Amino acid sequence: MIENNKLLEIQHLKQYFPVKSEQFFEKKVVKAVDDVSFHINKGETLGLVGESGCGKTTTGRTLLRLHEPTGGKIFYDGKDITHVNMLPYRRKMQIVFQDPYASLNPRMTVGDIVGEAIDIHHLAANAQERRERIVELLSLVGLNTEHANRYPHEFSGGQRQRVGIARALAVSPEFIVCDEPISALDVSIQAQVVNMFEELQQRMGLTYLFISHNLSVVKHISNRIGVMYLGKLVELADNYELTFHSVHPYTRSLISAIPIADPKVSRSTKRIVLEGDVPSPVNPPSGCRFRTRCFYADEQCAVEEPVWKEVSAGHFAACHHLDRVQ
Amino acid sequence: MNEYLVEIRNERLSFFTPAGEVKALNDVSLHVREGEVLGIVGESGSGKSVTSYSLMGLTAHPGRLIGGDIYFNGHHINKMSERELREIRGNEVSIIFQDPMTSLNPVFTVGNQIREVILMHTNKSRKEANERARELLQLVGINEPEKRLKQYPHELSGGMRQRVMIAIALACEPKLLIADEPTTALDVTIQAQIIELMMNLREKMGMSIILITHDLGVVAGMCDRIAVMYAGKVIESGTADEIFYQPSHEYTKGLLLSVPNINDREHKQLVPIEGLPVDMLNPPAGCPFAPRCRSCMKICLSTMPSYTKLSEEHYSACWLLDKAKFEGQSEVQHD
Questions:
Q1: How far apart, in whole angstroms, are the C-alpha atoms of residue B314 and residue B10?
Q2: What distances in angstroms separate CA B305 from CA A46, B47, B214, one per listed residue?
Q3: Smallest Cα–Cα separation from B235: which of B179, B311, B308, B332?
Q4: Does A261 contact B267 at a Cβ distance shorter than 8 Å?
Q5: pTM metric for this prediction
Q6: In chain B, what residues touch A143 (CB-CB under 8 Å)?
Q7: Which end of chain A is more exposed for a tag (fewer CB within 10 A), N or C?
Q8: Could you give the CA distance from residue B20 to residue B14 in angstroms, rounded to a whole number?
């Protein structure tokens, strides 16, 4: 079982971005992440799902301090890292990006891409050791020695993503943010990469924050899952609890909207089809942000923001009508 | 003369690139009946889009049809002139693309773009065309159609733009709608809306649909029949149930095992298809899937298998179905 000690924790994390406004003096912001709190235990995978623009990627980047948070606190291994120099922590916290075409420098060889982190953190005493380390990392992700001298354009999408993972592993991190790492890959390649993430986790005791819009994949790889909507966390629970006993109306409709690869099941099940689009995060609805698309919404939802409460052990949700949904 | 609305026979299509000839389609045969939804499943580069674009006579340079016949609704497509093809496009057959932002013209209003199709293919006056455009927007579930007609694509959300694309495609009540990854760029909740809309419209208007996608979940819910493509070949085709419950080609089986199911109640290890996608410039000699196949035999590496008929609709191209013949032939081990 997973030990119950928190490796990473965020408390009331906020990330606002300024946007252009029509009035010159008026200051407008997008509340990309608004008051999000969760923790990730050592060796665990926390999945974060939601539709585009819900703030899942921003959450992942902010907790690595790739953006300076507007408010809230970030703790890593019990220490507050909200305002400290991140360099020592970069060795422990890494990220794998979504697009393996945009996140690898086209003018560097794969060996140098992976080796750059080794150089920055002085992890190799000499060139020989550096070379050995690069070869070791490449073989860890299923590439071979000869690949080190090639450039990113010579690789397929799946192989590039492996290079991205090798680069993240170069500093022997403890924690990796996986930001939609498989969305850009073909179906048959996705499973290879998902399995590799699982193997690496077992072998090296890694902790993941796995961000994706694909709930099936997130459920497969995660221990716990958080669901985000318009910058807010709306529900958080164990992966099976969340997929089979969700309580938030948004989570329910999200699960129901997933097309099932089984003709008989998909013919017989009735979908909950949400109406309308996700509102703009610049002017989110008052009260509960989901109310404009929710079947249960009433006056209370428009006025009062729902509180984050524990529904059952380890299962949290924010909704005024939990009793009615159940 | 023909029981099929669409029939493609032994189509061969190549792209003549500076790096060499890419055989994008290598002996592809397909058919679609009236009112039927055919799903074409495959990875990027498998030729699924090229097949359906060629059906409208749309083959991008440097591609060229080098063999085979394409019949659609009584027309012999590959014998028609560009002028004749223009009569059909948008009228008898139309298409919706993956990315509704790049396929709508950003400098014209929505109304303008819908009217264009109507004015081109019918004798309606501008006023009548405008009326029809309004009806179409209502049909695809856009509220306040009057206001939307005057808006530009950038003022609409992704789901709304895709609805406009569908409205344009349906303007002349086509016999066939080609939907090329219509929901890939959309969020799941919006995807569910668009799928529901397409299925409702098919019921209302009785058109056939060719749905191109890599998402097995989407085809499972929408299609009557499915064709699985790999490296420019249809490697298996059959009814949706046959493909999902009795897959016979190793690639199809592999695809089905490699996606997690949200309804699984315990953690199942995914079984990936090992290896890399085919290099279309240097395709393997025999079966294109052989280098990645778990049960590859010697013959697979040298000769392309022909189709084995498994039922009225179910065809599959795999030597394993003739395995008895090759008894004793050792399986090839890949490194």
A1: 18
A2: 46, 19, 24
A3: B308
A4: no
A5: 0.88
A6: none
A7: N
A8: 10
